[in-house]
Each structure stands twice: as C-alpha cells, then as structure tokens.
Amino acid sequence: MMIRDDHGWRSQAPIHQGIVPSYLLAKLAASERYAQAAHAARQTLIAPAPAQHRSQLRLSIDENGTLVATVEAAPNRTIGDAHKTETLPGAVVRTEDQPAVADVAVNQAFDGLGATFQMLLDAFQRNSIDGKGLPLDATVHYGSGYDNAFWNGERMVFGDGDGQVFQGFTGSTTVIGHELGHGVIQYTAGLDYQGQPGALNESIADVFGALTEQHLRGQTADQATWLIGAGIFTPAVHGKALRSMLHPGTAYDDPELGKDPQPDDMSGYVTTTDDNGGVHINSGIPNRAFALFAVELGGYAWEKAGSVWYRALTGGLASSATFAQFAKATIAAANAVDKATGDAARTAWTSVGVIKAAGDGRAAD
Question: Which residue would you say has higher pLDDT here, 214 or 46?
C-alpha cells in the first residue's frame, strides 16, 4: 500500500517489477502542477498485484539454387483488453496469426512481444522467455490512468498513463523488452528483487530492452540511443526517457519530477530502504558498464556484448549475486571469447568502480 508521511507519498511494498520506479511515482503523487497525474500516480501506487509451442516455416534458396525449407520457433501471442479495470487477463482482442486491429495499443503490444521474441531467438537461440516456447501474453488498457507497465510473472500488463505526465506505455519497444527481460531472469538466475541483486535484475532487464530496440532497428552500439522508456513522457515533461544506460542521471530534469537520481558509478551508490533497496536507482551503475562494454566492442550489441551478459546470467549465477560477483561472471564469459573482449569487460567494470582500478579482478571495497 501507499502511505503519506513528512517526506511525502511513498510505497510500503513493491508494486510488481514495473518500468516506472516507485520513487518517481511518489514524486508525481505529490505534484500540485499536475493534479490529474498526481491522482493517477497515487492510484497506481496502491493498485493490488495481480505452454503451448509454435513453429514457423522458412523458405530460402541455397547457393545451388535449391529451395530449402526450415522450421524455426515462432511466437504465440495473445493480447487482452482490461477495459480500464484492474482485472486480468481481460477480454481477448488479438491472437497469433490474426491481422492488426483498430486499437493502436493492441497492435503495439503485439508487435513489441514479437520483436522481443525474435531478438531472443536470433541473439541467444532462446525460444521465448523460458527457452521452451512459452506463450507471450499481454493485457492493455489496465486500470484508469495507470502510470506503469509491468511483468507479473505470467504476462505483460500496460497502463495507458495519466495523459499529463505519462502516455501509453505500449509505444516503447524498450519498455516491452525490459519487462519480458524480467521473465527471462525469472526463468534463469531468478535474481532476488532487493538491493544489489535487485538492481542487477533491473539492469539486465534494461539490457534486454535496449537490445530489443537495437535489433529491431538494425542499430550498432554506437548508433543506439541507450535510452529506456523514450516516448512515454508527454511533451510537458522536461525529459527524454526514464533512464539513460550510457549516461545515467541525465534522462530527465523536470521541475515537478526532479532530476534523474541514477548514479553512474559506485561513488554515488545509494543506500536506502526505499525502492526495494534502490533497485531502480542503482541499476544505472551496471547499465553504464554494459553500454561502455558494448560501445567499446562495436558492431551489434546483441551479438557481442549481449552474448557475454547472457552467458553470465545463464551460467549458474546465484540469485543473491552482487555487482562484483556479476562483474566477475561477465569477465570470465568475455575472456572465453578472447583477451580483447575480456579486457574490454574488465575496463567497463573498472570505469564504474565495481572492479578495482588495478585491473586484477578483485571487487571494489
């Protein structure tokens, strides 16, 4: 639930693994400038928490001019409409192989699920978020003015926003990739959603979100924006996104919402009991490490940097992993590629203060 004290509105308990952090919603809840958005934020904060396989035929022509037929995994998507209630899953409005409908949010959710599925398959040979072809379900138009999108352990859920500060969440590919990324983490390392493991959970979900957008757009690491949630703010907000992976702390600076509080290295690490121990705030540190690593390697981030992070995530990582433990896992995965890749990973983690500058692989104190 949400309570109000001398410090303003705050959430007493986690409200799903949502894309909008609770500290930002709490700030908005106290806004006098955006009365409608403040009401929506308060309602969002107090809202209660709420295997079928497919394949597709691919036809191609080989070097001898022969028609080749191959079968590969395909998504199995179902979109529901909550009709502004908080009842899941909502009425089914589009399923796999059905054409686009008149509702833009439905089509955006459908396409975003497909883009994430294809990135996971192409980059990591992973068949859906569980690796076994799990159907991808989503619900749109959740709640009245609901200011978030979240993964609830079974499906993606999208609010429409309040219209003053947040607009529909389905239009951001990084939001969809991020939330489904939580699903991948759920089926692999299962990182605890608290403190440093929770910040890693948020960061790795951001990595999946960024990779999904870059894969969809065919962008190299140096062409990408590295923004998470671009486009979900209305034009009234002084901000470009919820987070910047390459430059944490610069995504927004608004008179009502305040300045993006993410630190970009361990010197700014925030120790707090809010935000599940700072899971959204401190995720900026490993986010920057990944972005620096990907830019240094160059090329498509899902092919090089992404594969290193994915192997670290799926290689026996403990659910209680700290930044330092995950850094060592990624450096080991990078060294398995070649020395240059290993050196790039070590440099990235050193740059954000997780690994000692001596470069000997020891964790920072």
Answer: 214
User: Reduced to 3 states, what is the DSSP secondary structure of residue 124?
Assistant: helix
83 is an active site residue = no
Catalytic pick among 178, 179, 215, 296:
179
Residue 148: give its domain's CATH number: 3.10.170.10
Number of domains in the chain: 1
From the candidates 16, 141, 280, 296, give the one annotated as an active-site residue.
Answer: 280
Whether residue 335 is contained in a domain is answered as: no
Pairwise CA distance, residues 192 & 202, whole Å: 10
**What phi and psi values does residue 154 have, to the nearest 5 degrees?**
-135, -30
Beta strands in the chain (DSSP E): 2-5, 8-11, 17-18, 55-61, 67-73, 77-81, 91-95, 136-140, 149-151, 156-158, 227-228, 243-244, 253-254, 258-259
- Note whether residue 161 is domain-resident: yes
Question: Residue 157 belongs to what domain range?
Answer: 55-171
Q: Residue 88: count other Cβ atoms within 10 Å of its Cβ.
A: 15
* Burial of 237 per CB tally in 10 Å (0-12, 13-18, 19+): buried
Give the pLDDT band of residue 17 (cuts 50, 70, 90). Answer: low
| pLDDT tens for each residue of 232-275 | 999 999 999 999 999 999 999 999 999 999 999 999 999 999 99
Domain membership flag for residue 247 = no
Summarised one tens digit per residue, pLDDT across range 299-313 is 999 999 999 999 999
Strand partners, 227: 244
Confidence of residue 36 (pLDDT cuts 50, 70, 90): confident
- Whether 280 is catalytic is yes
Position 63: which residue type? E
CB 265 within 8 A of CB 245: no
The string of pLDDT tens digits covering residues 340-364 is 999 999 999 999 999 987 544 444 4
Peptide bond into 89 cis (omega under 30): yes
74 within domain boundaries: yes
73, amino acid identity: A
Query: By the 8 A CB rule, do 26 and 13 touch?
Result: no
